[in-house]
Design a protein that fits this description.
Shape: elongated
Largest sheet: 5 strands, mixed
Distance between the termini: 43 Å
Order of helices and strands: HEEEEEEEEE
Strand content: over 45%
Structural class: mainly beta
Length: 116
């Protein structure tokens, strides 16, 4: 029996409806908190950066191929990935000596059910 158009759309679009994981970083006193975040490999994620300083900062990462100005007391959203396992550094372009961090990408560990 052939599938209806609406059923086919739901089946094809279902992966697009899956929630994207969010990760939060704060920028305060020209430092990123946390300075290192760990995300799963091979998945697109949402990175929300909140600038709590009274000055703007530019989130910059050559390895992530991203740059975004975050105005004072504002938030910015970046989507990164899917990425291969590894370490991807980032920095604040206006304060590169202090505002530094990294995204650590790890393969997800498979949980083995307890046999008890």
């Amino acid at each position: 029996m052939p599938l209806s158009i609406s059923t086919l759309c739901v089946l094809c679009c279902f992966p697009l409806l899956a929630a994207v994981s969010e990760y939060h970083i704060q920028l305060k006193d020209h430092l990123f908190f946390p300075s290192r975040i760990t995300i799963p490999a091979n998945q697109k994620v949402k990175l929300i950066i909140e600038n709590q300083d009274n000055t703007p900062e530019e989130f910059d990462s050559f390895s992530l191929n991203r740059e975004k100005v975050i105005f004072a007391n504002q938030k910015a959203t970046l989507f990164i990935g899917p990425l291969q396992p590894g370490e991807y550094s980032f920095f604040g372009e206006y304060n590169p000596n202090t505002a530094r961090g990294a995204v650590i990408v790890e393969r997800q560990k498979l949980e083995v059910p307890d046999a008890h």
